[in-house]
Amino acid sequence: MEIYLQQLPQQLINGLTLGGVYALIAIGYSMVYGILGMLNFAHGEVYMIGGFAGWWVLHLLTRNNEVLISAALVISLMIIIAMAVSALVGVVAERFAYRPLRNAPRMNLLLSALGVSIFLQNLVLTYQGAKVRFFHIGALIPEGLRVIHIGPAVFSFMRALVIAVTFLLMGLLSVMIKRTKVGKAMRATAQDLEAASFMGVDVNRIIVLVFLIGSALGGAAGALVGLLFTQVDYYVGFQAGLKGFTAAVLGGIGNIYGAMLGGILLGLAEALAVTFLPSAYKDVVAFVILIVVLIVRPWGLVGEKMPEKV
Amino acid sequence: MVETPILEFENVDTYYGNIQVLYDINLKVNKGELVCLLGGNASGKSTTLKTILGACKIKKGAVKLNGIRIDGKPTQFIISKGVAIVPENRRIFPRMTVLENLEMGAYLRKDKNSVKNDLEKVFELFPKLKERINQAGITLSGGEQQMLAMGRALLSNPDILLMDEPSMGLSPLLVDQQFELIQRVNRQGTTIFMVEQNANMALSIADRGYVLQTGAIVLADTAQSLLCNEMMQEAYLGGDSTCEVK
Predict the structure, then answer these.
(1) B41–chain A nearest CA distance, Å
(2) Nearest Cα to Cα of residue B205 among B240, B170, B181, B171
(3) CA–CA gap between residue B190 and residue B85 (Å, rounded)
(4) What is the DSSP secondary structure assignment for residue A102, as one 8-state letter?
(5) Which terminal residue of chain B, N or C, has fewer Cβ atoms less than 10 Å from its own Cβ?
């Protein structure tokens, strides 16, 4: 027992890092589901492309293990460009693969999303190859800053960065949704698309915006995970997408705050599970949670039990 | 009396795909009037509203708002030109507060100060809403939701207010309140075009009425004459109408 308690602070930090990333991915799933009632299974690929975009920025700005500009600027650029590239991918997918099916049965949309997922995966495989790309972050952080010891816990610089950025992005999104006019229009559209159009809301633009924001957050998650675990390949989107989806369902799909909560709880659950179980059980824990939630509380932790929209 | 038409239908045919739903519709709502469109199920009442809002395309004729054609335009354009609607079943935003719901009504308005004024006017008209200003829409009672939907529509400061089946889903007591409210709003100067199945109720407060049958207008007259019309009495009013021969 003693040893578990000693590990606890460390696992909480690990869980919070992982959870922040899951939350960012889950938000994209939840926002799109909330507004269109569709599961955007291409969202994992959007995350993966964010990872590649981040890798390219780092790669192009590094020579002989030295960064060409300040490390802080490189990290900022990695995240911003990953967000921009992923946002573009999400918006293009909406325009060409989802919008033409707006009035089709939901199943068609789901299949179209799976198609986009396969397309994007193979696109990256074709142009980037199957080999794993490593993030050479050694150049980014000076030796002395890499780890911070707090009692028994080791707080790496990257973990602190990931936690800070994920919570900053979630905070910004919350303020936008709650306070701004466009945020209110987004909520109104999610709650009743037709009624929102009666208020004069251009719902097509709101839907594009939802894809843009959700995909940008997914892209940020991709770049952050690259910085944290230092690798990316064309297949990472599958696993990440499933985790994000699980987090969204856990919180209550369609609810943005639920996605945040679900992501963080899922990350903590995985981190705590490896304290007590062999680390191979990490993913088992995630999917057991998914199955249990779907059976016991399919509307999630903070989601509301709503009648199916007809 | 000088009539200023706000809304006009001129020989309008509306289709769903290849199926014709509205046949040669002619109607007019003048400034300050309360006009109702009556008819049974599947008579084309909802389609008429959808045609105004640009949700259904017309193949013939013209729909005009303040003399300008609005057919073929997107919904948000039509709303921006002065149309507001209280939809069937109210359709308030359930997880937004009363204030946020009202703010959505003023979504397209840029004149912040007059929005503030209109908000105060709405609260004067519906003091209940002010008491519940920070409550989520879904927690309101049916009658309060009706007020909210009405207040939300009024906050766009519309030239014409469309009402889709205002009596739908309300208890008889609330229906009475609802129609009193509509009359009050109309008397304060808002032009209203109301679609309703409850012909007795609608005609008791309306200035004029049109009757739709399978997509065509079969009767058009003042409310009083419609109440006394034999065919109306038989088909829609059930004999207990309030026809008073003057």
Answers:
(1) 20
(2) B181
(3) 12
(4) T
(5) N
Rounded-to-10 torsion of CA B77, B80, B86, B91: 70
What is the architecture, at CATH level 2, of domain B1-82+158-246? 3-Layer(aba) Sandwich (3.40)
Chain B residue numbers with beta carbons less than 8 Å from the beta carbon of A194 are 87, 91
Q: Using CB atoms, pick whichever of A181, A192, A197 lies closest to residue B93.
A: A192
Instruction: For residue A13, give the nearest of A139, A147, A181 by alpha carbon.
Output: A147
List per-residue pLDDT tens for chain B, 246 residues long: 568 899 999 999 999 988 999 999 999 999 999 999 999 888 999 999 999 999 888 999 999 999 999 999 999 999 999 999 999 989 999 999 999 999 999 999 999 999 999 999 999 999 999 999 999 999 998 889 999 999 999 999 999 999 999 988 888 888 998 999 999 999 999 999 999 988 989 999 999 999 999 999 999 999 999 888 888 887 777 766 566 654
CB pairs under 8 A between A and B: 58
Instruction: Please give the structure tokens belonging to residue B245.
Output: 């021969």
Domain boundary assignment for chain B:
1-82+158-246, 88-157
Contact residues on chain B for A191, CB-CB shorter than 8 A: 93-96
Complex prediction ipTM: 0.90
Give me the residue label for tokens 């709502």.
B29
Nearest in space to B108 (alpha carbons), one of B143, B75, B142, B147: B75
Q: Considering only CB atoms, which chain B residues are within 8 Å of A196?
A: 93, 104
Q: Which residues of A touch B96 (CB under 8 A)?
A: 184, 187-188, 191
Distance, CA of A17 to CA of A2 (rounded, Å): 24
Of A192, A198, A202, the CB nearest to B85: A198
Return the domain boundaries, chain A. Answer: 41-127+155-234
Distance CA A21, CA A18 (A): 5
Compute the distance between CA of residue B35 and CA of residue B206 in angstroms, rounded to an integer. Answer: 6
Q: Is the minimum CB–CB distance between A202 and chain B shorter than 8 Å?
A: yes
Distance in angstroms (rounded) separating the CA atoms of residues A20 and A265:
9
Q: Which of A185, A192, A194 sits opposite B107 (nearest CB)?
A: A185
- Angstroms from A182 CA to nearest CA on chain B: 9
Q: What is the pLDDT of residues A100-155, one digit of tens each?
A: 999 899 899 999 999 999 999 999 999 999 999 999 988 888 776 778 787 777 78
- Is A182 touching B (CB cutoff 8 A)? no
Whether A193 and chain B come into contact, CB under 8 Å, resolves to no
Report the distance separating Cα B42 and Cα B32, nearest Å. 29
